[in-house]
Amino acid sequence: MKRWLPHPVLTPLLALLWLLLNNTAAPGHVVLGLGLGWAIPWFTLAFWPDAVRFHSPTAILRFAGFLVVDIVLSNLTVARLVLAGPRALKPALVQVPLDLTDEFAISLLSNVISLTPGTVSAQLSPDHKVLTLHALVGDDPETLVRTIKRQFEAPIKEIFGC
Fold this sequence. Notes:
2 domains, 56% helix
């Protein structure tokens, strides 16, 4: 079974993502989404050394809901900053020490940070212990680090049982 369906959790998630991106549940898109959801993990199997294991499915739902709300609020904040003009921006590079050790979890954290407007993951240290971020407003780096660790890293640790 693993040979034909290498990532059974990822397949429906990719199919759902396809349907959300296309904003339709038409039968053709459902079939295409399921096809892509199967093909992408199958063709990229060599890049996945270990199967992804979730330790708390309910934490995934909570985190996804929180992330959607945070993205919307961050969009509004960035829009306000842009409309306020360049003087409102205080860009900075901030280093976040990581407690995560799993490469997939670190990758997810980095991507989630980049999805949230106003912050972008810039670099991961060679030892995978520090993630450097670029923030539009970095006048208080300690608060930003605490926020990233509390709002993003802690739920990801819970999801993956790190």
